[in-house]
Amino acid sequence: MTATEGPSATGTGEPSAPGGGPAGHARGDTVAAVVQQWRAVHPGLDTSPMEVIGRINRCAALLQQAEDAPLRRAGLTRPEFDLLGALRRTGHELTPSELARETFSSGAAVTKRLKQLTERGLVERRGDTRDRRVAHVRLTDAGRELVDGILPAQLAYETAALSGLDGPELGELAALLGTLLGQLEGRLGALRA
Amino acid sequence: MTATEGPSATGTGEPSAPGGGPAGHARGDTVAAVVQQWRAVHPGLDTSPMEVIGRINRCAALLQQAEDAPLRRAGLTRPEFDLLGALRRTGHELTPSELARETFSSGAAVTKRLKQLTERGLVERRGDTRDRRVAHVRLTDAGRELVDGILPAQLAYETAALSGLDGPELGELAALLGTLLGQLEGRLGALRA
DNA sequence: CACATATGATTCACGAGTAAATTACCTGCT
DNA sequence: AGCAGGTAATTTACTCGTGAATCATATGTG
What we know:
Chains A, B: InterPro entries: ArsR-like_HTH, HTH_MarR-typ, WH-like_DNA-bd_sf, WH_DNA-bd_sf. By secondary structure, the first copy, chain A, is mainly alpha-helical.
């Protein structure tokens, strides 16, 4: 497992424990075990938020590992694919700032990625005629074909990863996450204080 | 938001879009908009897994930003806190390898963190008497106090972050994520092929 | 008992991302 | 017109984590 280590999307303050012991076939998920450890040590605290947040983080970490596979096959990192995907799905050109917002990364990171992707012939840049500070980026034909070629494999992976839940459960999970995400996106600024 | 950028826990292949346009007060969550863009471009593909996976990733990214705040106040990064937390909740000493597994990071990363945390007097190392390759790491009093001091603030943040969902909803979300996570942890090795 | 092999921890070289500074350009104000 | 201040993109210096070696030790095998 040390092979495809995830980034730091790991723990939220409630990391997780495979068990430490030799018997690895954890029946319940690992987060439950971690939360229980915390409860034993701090009986006074309400640890219930960990059950949600810990699992979200752990799921995100695992899913990313799994999803990296089809991308790596195509020689792309996830952030690179996110960038290309933003261009593909919006259908029109985007400026570097817009790409930064779309992919939730810093402007500097976008600059670097654009350099690489341009060298590989996947995107093209064009200067704005009115405002010469801004650039416009668009997919080349090769870039669009690459994205379109990867996407089905990506979705197949995701479907396989979620196959443990049936249709209605998935719908409910999506809905709950949707309301949570809506709240988070709205409140985030406020919480950051 | 460009301020406290998260790592790469970003998009799963379905990044997200605040709108690009000036009207930023997205009512629904941003993932819905992204999925809709994909559907418009690729009407043939089943994009439903994005609704779940995209949201998981986005929630993870946002929650991590929020939770970084109380940690930074204490001068700790999240991975550092995860390491200390693993020691605290298990209650006993752990070897570097065990810490790596608990925190889902590489051995090299653990080595570096241990060096820093040792210099700050938060953890102590002890060599094993039988097997002189292994080390045993334990919290110092200062380390334990630091963790115990931070934890309540951490949980408060988490509770606040989840306040958009009521009790039953949280329970259901936790349960669904639990089964998903259980499946993922079981199947991951298989999927990695 | 020596040697091949495996394992725990560490070190090293590198790639990737960030924040802060920098460059280049636009725009509102007087 | 000219300048103050803001914004887009990039560059710079730095941190952090990783994968691949490396060191030190343990264990099984002939």
